[in-house]
Specification:
There is one protein chain. By secondary structure, this protein is of the alpha+beta class. 18% of the residues lie in helices and 32% in strands. The chain has 2 helices and 7 strands, in the order ββααβββββ. The strands form 2 sheets. It has a 5-stranded mixed beta sheet, with helices on one face. A two-stranded antiparallel ribbon has the order 3-4. It is globular. 17% of the residues are buried.
Length: 88
């Protein structure tokens, strides 16, 4: 299933050739992350803890609803990956 992935602006400078928006074939958020990792090795480490868990400052929304690694992706879904910003 084709899904549109939108990535935070902080990632493309770290991975040459990585666009902020791209279309992937994936059935779950985890499969989308696997596809990104295959194309841009190391990106999964920026988004996930060891194991199938997103880092606490990374949020994923599937068609506007909060998601997780195991969240299914319907056809033509929009997946927004957002890096939370904190300060003090």
């Amino acid at each position: 299933m084709s899904v549109e992935i939108r990535l935070p602006a902080t990632l493309p400078p770290l991975f040459p050739g990585l666009p902020r928006r791209l279309v992937l074939d994936a059935a779950t958020v985890g499969e989308a992350l696997d596809e990104l990792e295959e194309r841009w090795p190391g990106i999964r480490d920026r988004l996930c803890e060891p194991g199938p868990v997103l880092r606490r400052h990374i949020h994923v929304y599937v068609n506007g609803e909060r998601g997780a690694v195991e969240t299914p992706l319907p056809a033509e879904a929009r997946v927004d990956v957002i890096a939370a910003i904190s300060g003090g």
